[in-house]
Design brief:
heterodimer; A: Lipoxygenase-1; 27 strands; B: 227 residues; mainly beta; Double-stranded beta-helix; twelve-stranded antiparallel sheet; three-stranded antiparallel sheet; globular
Chain lengths: 552, 227
Amino acid sequence: MAREFQRGHKAKISDLTAGTDLYVGVRISAPGLTFDISCFGLDADERLSDDRYFVFFNQPKSPEEAIRLLGPQAGDTESFRVTLDRIPGHIQKLSFTATIDGAGQMSQLDPGYLRIVAGGEEVARYAFDGSEFTTERAVMLGDIYLKDVWRFAAVGQGFDGGLEALLKNFGGEVLEEEPAPTAPAPAPGPAPGFAPPAGPAPGFAPPAGPAPGFAPPAAPAPQAPAPAPVPPPAPATPPAPATPSAPAPAFGQPTPPPYGGGPGMPTQPGFPGQAAPPGPPPAPAPMPPAPTVPGQPLPNPFGQPQAPQQPFGPPHQQPFGQIPGQAVPQGPAAGIGVALQKYREAPTGQRWTLQNASLIRADLGHDGQPVLARQGSMVLYQGKIDFSYKGAGLAGRIVGNATGQELQLMRCSGRGQVFFAENAAHVHPIELQGDAVCVSAENVLAFDETLQYEVRRIEGHGIPGGALFTMQFQGTGTVVVKTQGTPVVLPVTPTTFADCQAVVAWSAGAQVIISSQVRLRRNAYPGHSGETVNLQFRGAPGNFIVVQPYEV
Amino acid sequence: MNQPVISGHAPTPPAARMENHGAHMVKIAMATGQDVFARTGSMIAYEGFVQYEPNPPAVRQMASQWLTGEGAPLMRCSGDGLLYLADYGADVVCLNLDNEAISVNGTNLLAFDAHLQWGVERVKGLAKFAGQGLFNVGISGTGWVALTSRGTPIVVDCGRGEDETYVDPDALVAWSTGLRMKSKRTMKASALIGRGSGEAYQIAFSGQGFVVVQPSEDSTDRLRVRG
């Protein structure tokens, strides 16, 4: 099902799937290590020129939501949703990366994978394990890139330096700009690259363990799972943010966050913990970085504004199939005619025309022969058709009296078209040309009056109603049989048995024998007699029986 | 849990406001401001933030004739997300009205866009024959309508001959507005057509247009029966 990729393999996305709505899942794990998995949206020069397209736990979606972080699910350590046709033109490449949060190296990796799922089906999988790596601390797992068309490449390229090296690879200025990260560098967290903006308030950079630099107040809380490996110098701060941000996850997920948020924290409605006004940084100490950052345009789009809003929780709540904020596709305004085209009436011509699985049309008037049909099976007619009562004859009376379920027929005569159906059962026209067929009386829908028919009675102990009534049709014409569900046609062999309630029809050449199975013990509960009475069929090769998946 | 059986039935991304998922389920892409009226009790699943308002005041007024005393069997669905509707395994047909009009048997109506013009009308002269009272909902405008049908429906052109088209009311799903309709009772004691005994009645359509018929005479309103 899924196409297996190895390092260096490439393929067009269109060869993998016709869809453009992809789910990208990454499974990466190692004993005792935590990983940060992120997606870089790069421009044609493979630079991270637009920070808003760095999608990671603290910025879980790109502005137009073409790339969204979904969080761990379905066995994936991290997952993304990528909508290719909504990715803006200046983003030419999506690079999916994993970095170790803390100490460790990639050689410790357990077997993992990067996979692409489209339309509910896994279409590509790039599997890797620690043996492919050595001391790397960051790895580019795979790329989805635009080269005429969108393609996927399994990359598997490691970087010794961790996320910093990765960032340098993608857009060095972030790092170059700020020597400070070296200070918190011991914090090998994913974020050091972003720490620099916090420079003006150096005291704050360190506090958060996993995300030292960005995400002033709220972030640390959601990220709590990754405990700070760093001994932060400002010990007072970390606990503070934890509490106020706690309520954050519960709120505000669906609203798309205001991006590129100005200097202030945009007031997030329903964000109780922290009154948004940036000026008076209320409770948490770490907040000050936010106001200070605005001076630096580049890093700004990261953490601050969105941070409070993007706890890990919400991605799970956002159903994958849903596209919030997107205009609902209205589809083609085709009109009724187009929509109903496939249900159009089949062209006329033959006497019996199957319209669909459960509807058959009889064209009367070609030969003036009437049709006999079960009463009430007419759903529609056109033309001058006369319906009249047709008794089933003396034998039919017996049917009715014995079973309490009389097969009542009506005669349809005249000129026109009559549509027969009953209870959405499947209908099957059987055309007889001189041969004969037996049909269980309950399964007869309609037949030509030209056919000779007689009612037969199969008696046997244990048959509900005391006997099974069948109609044997003979001659030239069509008999329409209805079945609940798709029937099976079995050739008659020496060991052909059928439940007397499920059997629909059999060729008249087959001989029916009642076979009762002797059981020592019957099923005890009432209303169930067990499968004790079967019909056995005997006949020359060429005979058949028809059985429906429904025991009347 | 990554078997084809499971993954093969995952929904496809919505491409239209109303789409079939399989033959028996409709998937509606909901968005704020684009509400949908759906039969009460027809929701089988939804994703996202969808809210339901049973028996909304607007409907109560419109559908006062629908079934008296019990409230209208419609709910207003609003919000963002994907809404899945079904009616006990009946086939679902999605229609996109392009400034057109259609009359739908009330039992066979599953959902429609709230911005469409609609009204409930009883079929003159017929209501007293049908056991449950035959009523139909006229819908017009530009938008989506979802119908149900027990079995694959068929569309029959009425304007083919000079003769009228007669339909068993229990099998009638929808028809184009503009058709003339009248009831036809077969009073002959020997003629027994249709469910039950004694009285047989059909609806006769004439004029230019089409009739949608289901291959079943089960006109039970299952959603209503369940309550």
